[in-house]
Amino acid sequence: MPTSLVRVAMIGCGSMARHHIRQMAQQTGATTISVVCEPSAAAYEKSSATFREVGLEPPPNQPDLERLLKEYAGELDAAFIITPHALHHDQTIACTEAGLDVLLEKPMVLNAAEARSLIAARDRTRRLLVVAFPGSLSPQIRLAARLIQSGEIGQLVTISGVVWQGWKTGTIGTWRQQPELAGGGFLFDTGAHLLNTVADLAGQDFAEVSAWLDNRACPVDILGTVMGRLESGAMVTLHACGDTIRVCQSDVRVFGSKAILRTGVWGERLEMQRDGEPDLKPVDVPVSLGVWEQFLAVRGGTLSNPCPPEVGLRMSKLWDAIKASAAKHGQPVMCT
């Protein structure tokens, strides 16, 4: 059985890791970050400053993951992987084979083949694997999905989602604009939340997509437009704009025959409007402290895993189809 204090290795100490450190520090007595794995001295120093800000002693850094897993064998329970997308597959397999449960930052992997490989590794090692999509792990999206799947909003008719951010200028010179590390641009980075949350709400695979990507003179996609048809026949439109003002926001609308839902790609809100009501009304849901809190609940057996690698596979299949369609100038592609 899991111990009350989870001993975790944090793999990667970039800006997202620092965000998670602040959230994890609020969960007193639940976790100890025993060691970090960060090859960049500058990134480790910034994360150390964050640990001190929240009143924690910075853990030691072992920048080589293979050595870390050997040196800390038997002293860890879990790994939180927060590294560039192209590293996720091999690092997750290494951690599960070392006997660790894993919370893996989004997007899970680069393609459907890697997703199937992680599912096989999960089954082989019998370790817990949760993908850190805040949408899938949020009480808002979980409730919205239940409302849709239960028929509460009637027949699912269409879903429309949009996400926008000043991503292009904000990521210049970083690994996020290096295709070999990022695996894609805005639609695969911030936009991955859009792809995953919409697929989560739909509760089914896409059958067919048409997509267009525009790099805006960058090495990776900056703009993306996707039209899709779900297996049920419901229609989906997705819009990702990574070249706008310095904001990061989203909006997702689910249209049913009896009600409309409004949420966001991170589960940042949930509103509902039933037939006959004049406006959308907020739906009350529990407050969440983020993805690590949800991971602990899954690991402790109080929550069924809302985001297993099968969810990552579903999004990977969609991303593969988007790339294939965009390469053919929007020609429809069947999802497989």
What does this structure look like?
The protein is 35% helix and 25% strand. It is an alpha/beta fold and 336 residues long. A 9-stranded mixed sheet has the order 13-12-11-10-6-9-8-7-14. The chain has a 5-stranded parallel sheet with strand order 2-1-3-4-5, with helices on both faces. The longest helix is centred in the last third of the chain and has 19 residues, at 309-327.
At CATH level 3, the topology of the largest domain is Dihydrodipicolinate Reductase, domain 2
Return Rg in Å: 20 Å
CATH architecture of the largest domain: 2-Layer Sandwich
CATH superfamily of the largest domain: Dihydrodipicolinate Reductase, domain 2
For the residues shown, what is the average pLDDT? 96
Q: CATH first level of the largest domain: which class?
A: Alpha Beta
- The 3D shape can be described as globular
| Main sheet summary | 9 strands, mixed
Record the strand order, biggest sheet.
Answer: 13-12-11-10-6-9-8-7-14
Residue share in helix:
25-40%
What structural category arises from helix and sheet content?
alpha/beta
Please provide the ordered H/E string of secondary-structure elements: EHEHHEHEHEHHEHHHEEEEEEEHHE
Counting DSSP E segments of at least 2 residues, the number of strands comes to 14
Q: In percent, how much strand structure appears in the residues?
A: 15-25%
Overall number of domains: 2
Number of helices: 12
Distance between the termini: 38 Å
**pLDDT below 50 for ≥5 consecutive residues: which ranges?**
none
